Sequence to fold (145 residues):
Amino acid sequence: MKKVVLYFLGFFMLVSCAEKVVEEPDNLIPKDKMTSILLDLAILNASKSAAKNKFEDTGINIMDFLYRKYAIDSTQFAQSDLYYASNPLEYQSIYETVDAKLKVAKKDLEERSKRRSDSIRKANLAKSDSIKGILSDEEPKPIEP
Fold:
């Protein structure tokens, strides 16, 4: 009798786990588009926290901007987000992709910033050498771009 109960309980758990918690909406945002939306949302929210006054001064609403950019509405976004959230593995996959793209973007920005800092430092050194040459009555060296 215990085996029958255990089999029944196991079968019940298997069936209940396979059951969809939230049905797929008719206007589901495709996974790749949802990934792009969430990536932009992460970047814009970070920007807003860094430059809150700029967003307030310009009256930019992040969600309205994203709805227009991706030609979606708030209901479609909410239903799609709820659907993906009800499928943890798929939702995790989306956020892992977003995280990977954010890391690539961060690395790219850091490299650009370093190159810019290096070029500014070189320009300042060249300018300093020219000024020293003028002050010491030497022929100034041309400033390299």
In short: Residues 25-118 form one domain. Helices lie at 2-18, 31-50, 52-58, 62-69, 74-85, 88-135.
